[in-house]
């Protein structure tokens, strides 16, 4: 198990909300990704057993304990205000984590495409060099044939 950050992506529709949790972990064997997804109807029942990340309490519970806001003292308006501010910061944190995961995946896709393009360019260059070598050999053989250096077959 690793302590890698998770990120969620949310989508809404008239009759349901969808969510995805990404958890990307770097291990000694490479990257290991976990993706959980679910759909929540407007009545609140989920199609999967994973939590509803649109619910702020679930989002806060999923944070590492040092990042979770302390329960406010509801008799102190400043405490409640700080708690609400912390909840907003937690939502922003999840948004940034989501963007980070999605951008990292896009970056990896682009790097893979770039590597494939570089490989194709090397292959093309090699084939062009081989083509030029074959042209030179052909021209040399024609010249030898015209000079009578090579017997006709």
Automatic annotation (TrEMBL):
Example GO molecular function: MAP kinase kinase kinase activity
Compositional bias (Low complexity): 38-50
Family: Belongs to the protein kinase superfamily. STE Ser/Thr protein kinase family. MAP kinase kinase kinase subfamily.
Region annotation (Disordered) ranges: 29-53
Keywords associated with the record: ATP-binding, Coiled coil, Kinase, Nucleotide-binding, Serine/threonine-protein kinase, Transferase
Protein name, entry field: Mitogen-activated protein kinase kinase kinase
Annotated organism of origin: Rhynchophorus ferrugineus (Red palm weevil)
Coiled-coil intervals: 100-147
Biological process terms in GO annotation: immune response; JNK cascade; positive regulation of canonical NF-kappaB signal transduction
């Amino acid at each position: 198990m690793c302590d890698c950050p998770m990120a969620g992506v949310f989508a809404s529709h008239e009759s349901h909300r969808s969510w995805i949790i990404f958890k990307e972990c770097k291990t000694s064997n490479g990257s290991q990704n976990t993706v959980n997804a679910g759909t929540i109807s407007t009545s609140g029942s989920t199609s999967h057993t994973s939590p509803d990340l649109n619910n702020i309490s679930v989002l806060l519970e999923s944070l590492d304990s040092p990042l979770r806001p302390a329960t406010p003292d509801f008799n102190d308006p400043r405490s409640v205000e700080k708690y609400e501010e912390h909840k907003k910061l937690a939502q922003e944190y999840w948004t940034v984590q989501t963007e980070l995961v999605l951008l990292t995946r896009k970056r990896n896709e682009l790097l893979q495409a770039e590597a494939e393009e570089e490989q194709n360019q090397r292959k093309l260059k090699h084939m062009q060099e081989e083509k030029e070598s074959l042209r030179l050999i052909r021209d040399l053989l024609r010249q030898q044939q015209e000079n009578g250096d090579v017997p006709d077959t």
